[in-house]
Design goal:
about 600 residues, mainly alpha, 39 helices, elongated
C-alpha cells in the first residue's frame, strides 16, 4: 500500500508516461537480436530503463484497481524481462521493493491476481529470490488463494508456493498446519482433467509427503481415491513416475497403505506391470521398478497385506505365478517378495502351499543356481522359509521333496544366498525327526556345512551353518547322524558354538552336544578332548555374564560327559569342583540344584562310573 497519498496521486498521473516510454524502449530493443542488445551498452540501458519503469509503476500505482489494464501491461513487461534475463530481473524486483506490491495485487482483481501469481512463480525459479519472497510475507497471502475456483490462478499459485517452499522443512510444516493438504486434495478432486494443474498438485504433494504431519493429514482425506484415479488414466511415463513417487512415500504410513488397497491401487499397479513388462525403454524400466517397489511397500503393512491377499483371490497374488515365470528379473523379484510378505500369516502360508506356490518358487530358484540374480534367490528363499513355519506346511513341503530340491543351492558362492538357504533348511527340519535324520546323513550337505562353519568372511553364514548342524542333532536324536557329523569333522564347530556371543546359539549347541554325548559318548570323547570341551564348559560356568539358562545347560552337558573316565579326569584336573561349589549358591534355584547334583557325582568314586 502506498505510504503517502501524494505518491499515490502522482503515480496515477504518471502511469501513461511511464508505460508509453517503457513500451517505446521495449519496441526499440525488440527489433534486435537479444545477445546484441545485451552486449550493447545503449540497448542494455534501454532494457533496464524499461524494466525500471514497469517496476516503479507496480510499486507506486499497483493498488489502484482502476488501472487494471495498465497494471497488467506492467506485469506482462516484467514477465517478458524475466524470460530474457531471469537473474537480473529478479534482482531488480527485490531491490525495487516490488514484491510487497505483488502481494497486494494477489488480493486485487482476478486478472491481476493471476498475472501477479505467474510473475511470482517465475521469480521463484531463482534460488536467491526465495528468501526475499518469504520476507515479503507472500506465502500467507497465497495459501488462501488455493481455495479459489479459478484454475489458472490455482496453477500459478501452486507453482509459486511449491518453488518457494521447496527443500524448506520449516515452511513446509507451516503449509501443512495452514491446511494446504486439504486444498491440494480438493483441487485434484475438482479438476482431475486439467493436466497442468494436476501435475503442479502432484509435485506439491511429492514435496510435502515426506513429512509425518502431511501423511497424517492426508490419511484424513480421500487422496487414495484421487491418486488411484490419476494412475489409472495416465500413460505418460513422467506423470506415472510422479504419481508412483507420491504413492511410495504415502505407503510408508500404515493407514494410507490400507486406504490405497481399499481404493484399488493393486489393479492400477498390476496393469502398469503388465503393460511395461515387454518394454526395453529406460523410462519404462524406471516406472516398472517403481510400481514393483510400491507393491512390496503396500504388503509390509499387516492390514493392507491381508486386504490384498484376499484368501488368495487378490489380483496381486493371482499375478504372482505370471511374475515368477517371467523372464524379467524385476518381476521375478516382485513375485518372490510378494509371497514372502503374504507368508507372514500362518493361514496365508497354508493356503499358498495348497495352491502350489512352493514349486513355482523352486522352479525360479533353479533358473538362478548358476550365476543367477542374488536378490531373486534371496527373496525366493525368504518366501520358502516363511512358508515352512506352520507345521502342516513342513510336512507337505518335505513330502514334496523341497528339502532335496533346494540343496541345489549348496553350490552357491554368494553369502546372502547361503545364509537364506541355511535358515530355510533349519526351519524345514524343525520338529521333523525323519527329515533331520535324512539330511543329517547327507555327506554333501554336511561337508558344505562344516566348510561354512569355519568361514571367517561372513559371520551370518557361519552362524547359520552352526545352527543347522546343531538342529540336525537336536531334531533327529539319531546315532547315525552323530556318527556322520563326527566323520565330517563337525563336532569341533559345535563346541566352539557353545562359547558364541549369542545366547540362543550357546544353548542350541549345549543341548545338541548333550544329546550327542548321551547317544555316543565313547565315540565322541576323542573329538571332545581335541576341541577342549571340558575347558570350554568350565569357562562358561565361571563367566558372570552367562545367564542362568546357559549355566544350566552347560552343567547338564558336563553331567553327561562325566560318564567318560577320561573326560572326568580332565574336569578334576581343571578344578571344576570349586566352580560347582560356588554355583551351589547361585540365585537361580535350578542352576544351584543342578550344580549340587554334578558336584556329588564328581565327589563319588570313579570306579562307580563308566569307562
Amino acid at each position: 500500500m502506498c505510504s503517502r497519498n501524494g505518491d499515490h496521486h502522482m503515480a496515477k498521473h504518471m502511469v501513461p508516461n511511464y508505460l508509453s516510454f517503457a513500451q517505446a524502449c521495449h519496441d526499440l530493443a525488440k527489433g534486435l537480436d537479444l545477445v546484441t542488445c545485451l552486449n550493447n551498452q545503449v540497448f542494455l540501458w534501454v532494457w533496464v530503463k524499461s524494466l525500471h519503469l514497469h517496476l516503479e509503476h507496480l510499486r507506486l500505482g499497483g493498488e489502484d484497481t482502476e488501472d487494471e489494464g495498465e497494471i497488467l501491461k506492467s506485469l506482462n513487461g516484467v514477465l517478458q524481462a524475466l524470460a530474457e534475463d531471469k537473474h537480473r530481473t529478479a534482482t531488480l524486483l527485490a531491490e525495487g521493493k516490488v514484491l510487497p506490491a505483488l502481494g497486494r495485487l494477489l488480493r486485487s482483481t482476478p486478472a491481476c491476481a493471476v498475472k501477479a501469481a505467474q510473475v511470482l512463480s517465475e521469480v521463484a525459479k531463482n534460488e536467491e529470490m526465495k528468501a526475499a519472497c518469504i520476507s515479503a510475507g507472500l506465502i500467507p497471502i497465497m495459501v488462501p488463494l488455493l481455495e479459489s475456483t479459478n484454475q489458472e490462478l490455482l496453477f500459478h499459485v501452486g507453482r509459486a508456493i511449491g518453488r518457494i517452499c521447496y527443500d524448506n522443512n520449516d515452511l513446509q510444516e507451516q503449509l501443512v498446519v495452514a491446511g494446504v493438504i486439504t486444498a491440494l486434495v480438493r483441487i485434484l478432486s475438482d479438476y482431475p482433467d486439467n493436466e497442468a494443474l494436476v501435475r503442479v498438485n502432484l509435485l506439491a504433494l511429492s514435496n510435502l509427503a515426506d513429512l509425518e504431519t502431511a501423511k497424517e493429514a492426508l490419511s484424513k482425506t480421500k487422496i487414495a481415491e484421487q491418486l488411484v484415479h490419476q494412475l489409472r488414466k495416465v500413460n505418460h511415463h513422467e506423470k506415472v513416475e510422479i504419481i508412483l513417487e507420491v504413492l511410495q512415500t504415502l505407503a510408508e504410513n500404515d493407514a494410507l497403505k490400507l486406504q490405497l488397497a481399499e481404493a484399488g491401487i493393486q489393479d492400477a499397479v498390476t496393469e502398469i506391470l503388465s503393460r511395461l513388462q515387454d518394454s526395453s525403454k529406460p523410462e519404462d524400466m524406471c516406472s516398472l521398478k517403481a510400481a514393483s517397489d510400491l507393491i512390496v511397500s503396500l504388503l509390509l503393512g499387516d492390514e493392507s497385506m491381508q486386504q490384498l491377499f484376499a484368501e488368495g483371490h487378490g489380483v496381486i497374488y493371482q499375478s504372482v505365478g505370471t511374475w515368477l515365470a517371467s523372464k524379467h528379473t524385476q518381476l521375478q523379484l516382485t513375485g518372490a517378495l510378494a509371497i514372502a510378505n503374504f507368508a507372514r500369516n500362518d493361514s496365508n502360508c497354508v493356503r499358498m502351499v495348497q495352491l502350489g506356490v512352493v514349486h513355482q518358487l523352486l522352479d525360479l530358484l533353479e533358473q538362478h543356481v548358476e550365476s543367477g540374480d542374488v536378490s531373486v534367490q534371496h527373496a525366493a528363499l525368504s518366501a520358502l522359509r516363511n512358508l515352512a513355519i506352520p507345521v502342516a506346511n513342513k510336512i507337505q513341503m518335505l513330502e514334496e521333496g523341497v528339502g532335496k530340491r533346494i540343496q541345489m543351492l549348496l553350490r552357491s558362492e554368494m553369502p546372502p544366498v547361503q545364509f537364506k538357504l541355511l535358515g530355510t533348511l533349519r526351519m524345514l527340519i524343525d520338529g521333523q525327526a525323519e527329515a533331520a535324520e535324512e539330511l543329517g546323513q547327507d555327506p554333501t550337505l554336511l561337508n558344505r556345512l562344516v566348510q561354512w562353519c569355519g568361514s571367517k568372511d561372513h559371520a551370518g553364514v557361519c552362524g547359520e551353518a552352526n545352527r543347522l548342524l546343531a538342529s540336525l542333532l537336536r531334531h533327529s536324536r539319531s546315532p547315525e547322524v552323530v556318527q556322520a557329523i563326527q566323520e565330517a569333522q563337525g563336532v569341533k564347530h559345535l563346541v566352539s558354538m557353545a562359547t558364541s556371543e549369542h545366547v540362543i546359539m550357546q544353548n542350541e549347541a549345549l543341548i545338541a552336544l548333550a544329546i550327542a554325548s548321551a547317544i555316543s559318548l565313547e565315540n565322541l570323547k576323542e573329538a571332545f578332548k581335541e576341541a577342549a570341551l571340558v575347558q570350554n564348559i568350565h569357562q562358561l560356568l565361571q563367566e558372570e555374564s552367562a545367564g542362568p539358562e546357559v549355566k544350566y545347560n552347560a552343567i547338564g552337558l558336563l553331567c553327561s560327559i562325566l560318564n567318560s573316565a577320561e573326560l572326568r579326569r580332565e574336569a578334576e584336573e581343571d578344578q571344576m569342583t570349586r566352580t560347582l561349589e560356588t554355583l551351589c549358591g547361585h540365585s537361580n534355584g535350578n542352576v544351584a540344584k543342578q550344580a549340587l547334583m554334578v558336584l556329588q557325582i564328581l565327589n563319588e568314586e570313579p570306579g562307580l562310573l563308566g569307562p
